[in-house]
Amino acid sequence: MWKKKDKLPACVTENVREDLIKLVDVVKVYDTGSIKVLGLKRVNLTIKRGEFVAIMGQSGSGKSTLMNILGCLDRPTMGHFYLDGIDTAELSADELSAIRNRKIGFVFQSFNLIARTSALKNVELPMTYAHISKKTREERALMLLERVGLGKRYEHMPNELSGGQRQRVAIARALANEPPLIMADEPTGNLDTASSVEIMELFSQLHREGATVVLVTHEENIAAFAGRIIRFRDGQLVSDLPNVPQSQGQEETAKTEKEGAPC
Amino acid sequence: MLLENMSMAIHAIKANKMRSFLTMLGIIIGIGSVIAIVSIGDTMRFMVSDIYKNAGVTLAYVYVWPKDGGDMRESDYFTLDEMDRLKEVFGDEISYIDSNASTNAEAVFGRNKVKYQFEGIFSNYPEVQKINIIYGRNLNEADIKGRKNNVVLEAKGAKELFGTENAVGKTFRTTIYGTTDDYNVVGIYKEDLNPFEAMMAGTNATRSGYVPDSLLTWPNDNIYGLRLYAKEGTDMNAFSDTFTSYLAKTKNRNKEDVTFYSVSSEMGSADTIMGGLSAAVGGIAAISLLVGGIGIMNIMLVSVTERTREIGIRKALGAKTRDVLIQFLTESAILSALGGILGVAVGGGLVLLGGTLFHMKVVIKPSVILVAVGFSALVGLFFGIYPASKAAKADPIDALRYE
Ligand SMILES: Nc1ncnc2c1ncn2[C@@H]1O[C@H](COP(=O)(O)OP(=O)(O)OP(=O)(O)O)[C@@H](O)[C@H]1O
Ligand SMILES: [Mg+2]
């Protein structure tokens, strides 16, 4: 599993665990038969534990391609992706499944809850695949639904919930196995402004509690919640800047600070 | 995890009730017809063996008959003394022995004439075959020893001959072996036939009655063959062997010239017929289950395609190839087993209905039900392999992007 690492220069492998995500010269080529499409062109990127990162860029710039690689749903064509020090290029499909199960919580634009299955069962699902006992599963799923404000709706089917509520169930599900990394690809893309703010508040809260959050968005006001904004164009990283998070709670404190300032 | 898979499978089957039912139809019809045919077969087998049990599985007929077509010798016949001696020598095995003699004769009373078959018996015959006397008495030792013209008649025939069932004390005239004589009715019995026997006897106009065996062996007491009942629990094969050897020696014949014909061999041939029937049923079952299985495979393929996105979600959340494989295999096995259970209900219901309509005791073996349901689950498992492996191999990104 660790064979290739030995061949890499020391600067790449050292401190690997401190960085939750480390991309080294990652290239993704989509081979559609007739033409080859470059999804990502030599991307180098490091995300440390506890960061809240927003990824932005035009349509087709490679955001989802990057998310698929970060989410261990796909592997780079060239280069290396280390998740928590593990080189995913070396892993089999089932090993990737196990990593997704334990280390990554997914939140999708289209919610992706399992139809005709209760909120509770949906939240339980990652724990089921982690072979956690039924009792623990149910207790924890209820607790998580409570936390996203849906404690009373645990028996509801996805089609009985609003978009915002569905996305909150999805977030509860993403937290089921307490993964270190939360990945969200346009989580507010299908929501109205009010629900979007609610969902982003939830992500901010998770971040404050120590989770690493990586989210893709088209909207500047959504990206404003993050502590770091990365921009892509044509499969390349074009800008990587820190950001002062704009969560509502912090906005208010910022205001009072301004008001309280002497000049 | 298995329980989890089963509840997921039942969930999925319930979500599409009508489609699941139509999918199961092939299995339902297949298993239903198998259960019905096997149960009918078992019922018939049970009836046949019941008849033989009434006739006594210990019954055997013995003849000495040259196999090469040569002439019979005087010594090939049996005598009354010989019968007594055989009973002594094989006292551990034989409980009853007689001449197996019977004769057809027309009984006449006034203007009434009834065709009879008279069977010769000894007085201890009721010890091996029940004679249900409703009026009068059985033949006794004195009737046999004295070669008395006393008879016991079956009730239906008595009614035809005398106009009343209770004909004890009445006398009729008949001709046995060319000698016409008067015969006294000393007893009347009732035959209890099972429906199968009644069906077979329905058109038979010949009535039955018992006469002293000694009347039919008279005057020369040259007995052609023996009818004997072995004691219960006798190993008929071993007994047949020693008895045949013994007779061959005393009659100075080859063993092949002695015929020992027992009912257990007849039961064997009945089983052969049933065996043939079972093979035919097996053929029907195989074809219908094949068709049912293909139906299940078809609908599972549709289901896998429809649920591509679900598969993608499950994989993204950590389902391994094996998890998805088992999920869909469980679903097709449960779908098929459910079809099997419904098939058992339908087939069994039809058989029970038939049983009540025809007043027959039907036999539905639990083992047959278990095998049927188990086998249909296996069919589901087998035909689920291809759809399930298709689902398990799906790439999570492609599956998630599927609309
Ligand atoms: N499975 C695929 N096969 C072929 N080409 C692909 C595939 N997936 C993505 N691409 C191509 O790779 C490039 C990057 O696509 P990607 O989906 O990552 O863009 P994106 O930034 O997520 O866009 P959007 O904002 O519209 O979601 C595009 O040119 C796209 O056409
Ligand atoms: Mg995208």
From the N-terminal CA to the C-terminal CA of chain A, the straight-line distance is 60 Å
What is the overall pLDDT average of chain B?
Answer: 86
Low-confidence stretches of chain B: none
Count the beta strands of chain A: 10
Tell me the strand percentage band of chain B. Answer: 15-25%
Order of helices and strands of chain A: HEEEHEEHEHHHEHEHEEH
Mean pLDDT over the residues of chain A? 87
**Quaternary state, please?**
heterodimer
Question: Count the strands of chain B?
Answer: 11
- CATH class call of chain A: Alpha Beta
Radius of gyration of chain A: 19 Å
Major beta sheet summary of chain A? 6 strands, mixed
CATH architectural grouping of chain A: 3-Layer(aba) Sandwich
List the strand order in the largest sheet of chain A. 6-7-8-3-9-10
Could you explain the architecture of this structure?
Chain B: GO terms for molecular function: transmembrane transporter activity. Chain B: One of its GO terms (cellular component) is plasma membrane. Chain B: This is ABC transporter permease. Chain B: Keywords: Cell membrane, Membrane, Transmembrane, Transmembrane helix. Chain B: Residues 284-396 form the ABC3 transporter permease C-terminal domain. The complex is a heterodimer of chains A (263) and B (403). With 263 residues, chain A is of the alpha/beta class. Chain A has one domain (50-67, 94-260): 3-Layer(aba) Sandwich (Rossmann fold). Helix content of chain A is 35%, strand content 25%. Chain A is built from 9 helices and 10 strands. Chain A has a 6-stranded mixed sheet with strand order 6-7-8-3-9-10, with helices on both faces. In chain A, helix 4 (119-129) runs parallel beside helix 6, helix 5 packs across helix 6 and helix 6 packs parallel to helix 7 (193-208). Chain A is globular, with a radius of gyration of 19 Å. The N and C termini of chain A lie far apart (60 Å). Chain B is an alpha+beta fold and 403 residues long. Chain B folds into 2 domains: 1-56 and 261-402, no CATH class; 57-260, no CATH class. The mean pLDDT of chain B is 86. In chain B, strand 3 and strand 4 (112-121) form a beta hairpin. The radius of gyration of chain B is 33 Å and the shape is elongated. In chain B, strands 3, 4, 5, 6, 7, 8 and 9 form a 7-stranded mixed sheet that branches. In chain B, strands 2-10-1-11 form a 4-stranded antiparallel sheet. In chain B, helix 2 crosses helix 11. Chain B has 13 helices and 11 strands. Chain A binds chain B through residues 68, 71, 73-74, 93-94, 97-98, 100-102, 106, 108, 112-117, 125-126, 128-131, 134, 173, 177, and chain B through 1, 4, 11, 15, 309-310, 312-323, 396-397, 400.
